[in-house]
DNA sequence: GTGACGATTTAAAACGTTTGCAATTTTCCG
DNA sequence: CGGAAAATTGCAAACGTTTTAAATCGTCAC
């Protein structure tokens, strides 16, 4: 291995050039003679010179980093969301030479305070914000500060313009309804959460809109709601819905984790899926393929979305476009074996 | 929101103090009058002052970052390893005020080159290295450079001393064998991969050692090997092993992903688990709980391990201990329904 | 009132890079 | 060969912080 050269000064000395010239040569400035540029590039390569990030950041104001504040999560994460998301971000960033900073919110510190720290310490040129809440103080802060960001998810408040990418949950839920309706289902169940997340509303509204479009008064919709992380309450709510002869013949869950619980509880209640009950989820987590009989769901291709978010953010950082960048991704149906024709009416 | 003060100079001016004094006051130096320290702290807080990371890094040589080079992964990640790992790292780092840098290797760039870049650009004070290969150039590089790191996994070559944390796969595989042996199994199958990863050897050796300890010549072991990411070859190898009347009655898989494939293929071949075939995995991925009848496996508690790795690394960075830090974590058996007594002999 | 000592505070250098502007060298033309 | 223009290179400041060494202030004993 060649001797390491750590600074521009050393490299310049070894080439008998000024620091300025070497810096410019490496940056590829036209004003430096081509011959010199090549000589410098060659020397830098074989000396293993790597510019110091801190110094570069300090003077240029650009860190080459994109920040992500880790969403605070419960003890058991049952999905690979985070892994796929950071993988996708990484893939999107690397082609532009950027890297990712992951900041964690300590117990007792709000996510916002961590975000503020990341932004104001100059660690990052832009940030990605996930899991948008109905009233999201992070977005308000970022907008006020004029700091580049892209959100994964939308606000309901549409006159707050900003850059976002979202999966079209409303469309997916409409699609799910239409498919089930065409299979003869008329009595539906929706399993949802009580937290004020925007995607909840968007998906529910999509479902409601699809129901409305049919204009069929015989369609019924029961709703079961439970807090996101309270498994006990969730199971209770689901059982209440599944109980009795007048239960839905098809259940749509806000996301797979809920759908999988429905499948478990249905099995426990002696119901056969999909003969007695159709179930459709959203997210396409890995377990949904393994849980019998295989959960029909929608794939949101997190990794691909994350890659696009990275691209969008880099564009925002570089070009500061006047109009916000927005992108709505249509999730694709993954038909497996948890849905089927409505059972014969019991009347 | 109060007006933002961005630099120490501004803060100093507003307090009518020198930059030096303010810097020292914020750092809590004893030599600054207590009254002044309090006054400065108060002003900094309400002005929302956040020190610039780049400037601090440049002069102090410490970035407050820990680096992780994202392992290059196939298109379909079926586990939540990465998510749990970065979550754990984040949790471990945040209590010491450190953050995580995720660097991705671009197509065509080796993981080593990315690592070198992270190290030599001064972005990070230390790095975490995962998925140790039998001959791992990353470890050789880091050692030669004397750069702080902790590896998640061991080398086989024991006279290469360094800091590591590993899950005791050898012990787990011994435990699995003992349990199955006591259930009457004598004919075993091992499903493994062909890549030169150290954990493969450690687990296989643990199994072999446990077999040796029994000293029972009637014990047989078949081995099926396939490349890590070649699903077709894997299925072929597994079917070859499961085929014919003289097949193993118990299969131990190197990790859950393989075990889940064994379960699928067993079902396809008309075998009932665990009546006809016992299966044990390793990792406790989420899907293993959902795949019928429930995979017996070992939980390596990735998140907890990652947290400890973070702690170790911060210790290494701060104290540069002479002797390497090492830590062997014993995975816990998660007994589910994929193992049982050996079937009656077919002879 | 003076000198000295401890308690506080400050000036200035340094970290490694980028960049505006000036200096130097080369090239070209008459 | 002289001079101006063009091409190339270099000087020095700046980014915001930490830190060494030195300056200032107040206090106290004599």
Structure description:
The structure is a homodimer of 347-residue chains. The longest helix of chain A is centred in the C-terminal third of the chain and has 18 residues, at 302-319. In chain A, strand 8, helix 11 (256-268) and strand 9 (278-280) form a beta-alpha-beta unit. Chain A contains 13 helices and 12 strands. Chain A has helices spanning 8-15, 19-27, 34-47, 53-60, 81-94, 111-120, 137-145, 169-182, 198-214, 231-242, 256-268, 287-290, 302-319; strands spanning 65-70, 99-104, 126-129, 149-152, 164-167, 187-193, 220-226, 250-253, 278-280, 297-299, 326-329, 332-334. In chain A, helix 2 crosses helix 3 (34-47) and helix 5 (81-94) crosses helix 13 (302-319). In chain A, the strands form 3 sheets. In chain A, strands 2-1-3-4-5-11 form a 6-stranded parallel sheet, sandwiched between helices. In chain A, strands 7-6-8-9 form a 4-stranded parallel sheet, sandwiched between helices. The first copy, chain A, folds into 3 domains: 8-51, 434 Repressor (Amino-terminal Domain) (Orthogonal Bundle), CATH 1.10.260; 65-167 and 302-329, 3-Layer(aba) Sandwich (Rossmann fold); 169-299, Rossmann fold (3-Layer(aba) Sandwich). In chain A, 45% of the residues are buried. Chain A is an alpha/beta fold. Chains A and B meet through helix 4, helix 5, strand 2, helix 6 and helix 12 of A and helix 4, helix 5, strand 2, helix 6 and helix 12 of B. Strand 2 of chain A pairs antiparallel with strand 2 (99-104) of chain B, so a sheet runs across the interface. Chain A binds a DNA duplex (30 and 30 nucleotides) through helix 2 and helix 4.
